[in-house]
UniProtKB/TrEMBL annotation:
Name of this chain's protein: Protein nucleotidyltransferase YdiU
Cited HAMAP family: SelO
Gene transcribed to yield this protein: ydiU
GO molecular function, one term: magnesium ion binding
Binding site for ATP: G101, G103, R104, K123, D135, G136, R186, R193, D273
Enzyme class: transferase
UniProt source species: Piscinibacter terrae
Known cofactor(s): Mg(2+); Mn(2+)
């Protein structure tokens, strides 16, 4: 890496209060260095919602004296920002990969925001000591995908890292073809991953640093663990529970992550690293969204198992802090009820059921089996089910006609009708409730692809439009009905490039 001029520290900055807790852990955890930045940056897209959560005023991009465009391209910093790249390790596709780290991400700083502590991180801002064979860059295509999906998932109520903005640059970046560079600014209470803990146990073999890191996570994010008999066991149990809940969120909206390596698993149970992700179109439990996942390790239906496997890797990483293997194993068990209970309650909500009955799992299962047999569109089917009418002889054609085997659907619908009657369900009330849980709009690959196609020609209007639609995924938005329609035939053939 050649020596780079330090980016200027700007004299004027928005009134953000920067904290220093991760930086203060010391240089066993990170390398302080500036971003490489990009030439001639331009705005691609910004999220007003994320900016507001961070405490930025609404005109944050227009205040010329703040030079926000330069800051979020890695070309300047605001006072109080301390840029650094963190070190972590991890298991990739079940195999120990050794040291990894922020190879193209850079922490700008931690903000004490109105919504709590939030870190700001650039992705694609150039080489770091952890770049290995990579170029430290991200391309426009992958940055738009990460940006849109982060904000879409947040609006869907799924725990996730957020995205503040994407900036673009004419800087060429070599992938399968020559593309252009972009920087995606992400926002999260923390970007600490399972792999951070694995790093200090298996790579650095530094139990003191491991304890410091665990204490940092407990003190800043999970203080209730401190009063437990064994705080580190309590931390593991908390992560297991949150990860179980996260998996239920993913499964219930048909989200496939694609790269569930332990370096992409958040210690706070957030969705992190939007790469070759995809939402289910037709319901296929075996769907693999990552074309380099040849074994289907991270296929849709396997995601909860993959998460549980990853939690075992985390437990191994925490073992130097835990006396008994059995305590760690017991803590991991928290994953199972967290996943099962959240899944059951989310699926009941998707069917508009207010109460719980023993027969519900079978009712849910038989619908999913029917959908799997016909590859019924996951999102459209549940959204249309919101309009299900219980009256005898009611015409439920919008949902019924999604199934070729109408008789099979009718048989299921008869059970559903009986179940709804058992809790005196009222059609109109149920429809309203179901519309708040079954999204109309998700980021289908072809929608992202259209936005990217225009953006690559310098037109960012489709990216901005799509962001606005996805920020209200449960609203009807009839003017954007086409975005909720079946994917066109050509969309089945989109290959999402894994080189991001
Ligand atoms: N273009 C690149 N240059 C340098 N390092 C890279 C590049 N792409 C990936 N890496 C590094 O390879 C490892 C695994 O990559 P992975 O695709 O999971 O992460 P990522 O998408 O770069 O980042 P994140 O997990 O922060 O979203 C990480 O250490 C990552 O920093
Ligand atoms: Mg990653």
């Amino acid at each position: 890496m050649s020596a780079l001029p330090l980016p200027p520290v700007l004299s004027e900055a928005p009134p953000l209060r920067f904290a220093d807790t991760f930086h203060a852990l010391g240089d066993r955890f990170h390398t302080a260095l500036p971003a490489q930045g990009v030439p001639d940056p331009h705005w691609v897209v910004t999220s007003d919602a994320c900016a507001a959560d961070l405490g930025l005023p609404p005109d944050w991009t227009q205040r010329e004296e703040w030079h926000a465009l330069q800051v979020f391209s890695g070309n300047a910093v605001w006072p109080g920002m301390r840029t650094l790249a963190g070190v972590y390790s991890g298991h990739q596709f079940g195999v120990w990969a050794g040291q990894l780290g922020d190879g193209r991400a850079l922490l700008l700083g931690e903000v004490d925001s109105p919504t709590g502590p939030l870190e700001i991180q650039l992705k694609g801002s150039g080489l770091t000591p952890y770049s290995r064979m990579g170029d430290g860059r991200a391309v426009l295509r992958s940055s738009i995908r990460e940006f849109l999906c982060s904000e879409a998932m947040h609006a869907l109520g799924v725990p996730t890292t957020r995205a503040l903005c994407v900036t673009g640059s004419p800087l060429p970046v070599r992938r399968e073809t020559i593309e252009t560079a972009a920087v995606c600014t992400r926002v999260s209470p923390s970007f600490i991953r399972f792999g951070h803990f694995e790093h200090f146990t298996h790579t650095a073999q530094d139990p003191d640093a491991l304890r410091t890191l665990a204490d940092h996570v407990i003190d800043r994010f999970e203080p209730q663990c401190r009063s437990a008999a064994q705080p580190y066991v309590a931390l593991l149990e908390t992560v297991a529970r949150k990860t179980g809940e996260l998996m239920a969120h993913w499964q219930s909206i048909g989200f496939c992550h694609g790269v569930m390596n332990t370096d992409n698993m958040s210690i706070l149970g957030l969705t992190i690293d939007y790469g070759p992700f995809g939402f289910l179109d037709g319901f296929d439990p075996g769907h693999i969204c990552n074309h380099s996942d040849h074994q289907g390790r991270y296929a849709y239906a396997r995601q909860p198992n993959a998460a549980f496997w990853n939690l075992h890797a985390l437990a191994q990483g925490l073992m130097p802090l835990i006396d008994e293997d059995d305590d760690a194993l017991d803590a991991l068990e928290a994953f199972k009820p967290a996943f099962a209970n959240t899944m059951q309650s989310r699926m009941r909500a998707k069917l508009g059921l207010r109460t719980a009955q023993d027969s519900d799992p079978a009712l849910i299962d038989s619908l999913l089996k029917l959908m799997a047999a016909e590859r019924t569109d996951f999102t459209i089917a549940f959204r249309r089910l919101s309009r299900f009418q219980t009256a005898d002889g009611a015409d439920n054609a919008p949902v019924r006609d999604l199934f070729v085997d109408r008789e099979a659907f009718d048989a299921w619908a008869a059970q559903y009708r009986t179940r709804l009657a058992a809790e005196n369900s009222i059609d109109a009330e149920r429809a309203l409730a179901m519309d708040r849980t079954n999204p109309k709009f998700i980021l289908r690959n072809h929608l992202a692809q259209e936005a990217i196609h225009k953006a690559e020609q310098g037109d960012f209007s489709e990216t901005a439009r799509l962001l606005k639609v996805l920020q209200r995924p449960f609203d009807e938005q009839p003017e954007h009905a086409a975005d909720a329609d079946f994917p066109p035939d050509w969309a089945q053939h989109i290959e999402v490039s894994c080189s991001s």
